[in-house]
Amino acid sequence: MKKDGITENCVIEEITEKKKQFLDLLLLADEQEDMIDRYLERGRMYILRDGDVKAVCVVTEEGEGLLEVKNMAVNPDSQRMGYGRELLRYIEEVYRGSFHTIQVGTGDSPMTIPFYERCGFVRTHRVPNFFTEHYDHPIFEQGVMLKDMIYLQKKLK
Asked: Model-level pTM?
């Protein structure tokens, strides 16, 4: 074992075609398929395998040196084992030097916000009513209805 639940067999690879084969995993982080369609093809997708696929991440270039994590999901049976943190660390390393900042927009979730804060992200701004205005149904995470999009950023040094 390397650390957490991650083994020496852990590999991260970029997926350049047939990205929808990972739709079930993508839907864990963004539960409306037409919203995923807005960024999936223009984004770069990475998966983390440790035996089977444990995590997925889609990032997009937003201009002026800004990279955005549009989707980051870990299989429920593999959460809290370090896979998300490992994939995010990899993304930061790949793009460091090409981008000055990485950001993520997420719901004001008691599960997601603390994860990104532990990874060194800080809250920068919010978009009020994003989820209620852009999704066709209410989205709940751990009993909390998501309303505002919360943005967090981290400098890539």
From this structure: 0.91
**How many of the other CB atoms lie within 10 Å of CB of 153?**
19
Evaluate whether residue 3 is within a structural domain.
no
Give yes or no for residue 1 having a pLDDT over 50.
no
For residues 25 and 73, is the Cβ–Cβ distance under 8 A? yes
- Residue 4, domain member (yes or no): no
1 located within any domain: no
Does residue 4 carry a pLDDT above 70? no
Q: Is the dihedral of CA 116, 3, 30, 61 positive or negative?
A: positive
**CA geometry: angle at 82 spanning 17 and 40, to 5°?**
25
Q: How far from 109 is each of 27, 34, 47, CA to CA, in Å?
A: 16, 22, 23
Query: Any idea what the CATH number is for the domain that residue 126 is in?
Result: 3.40.630.30
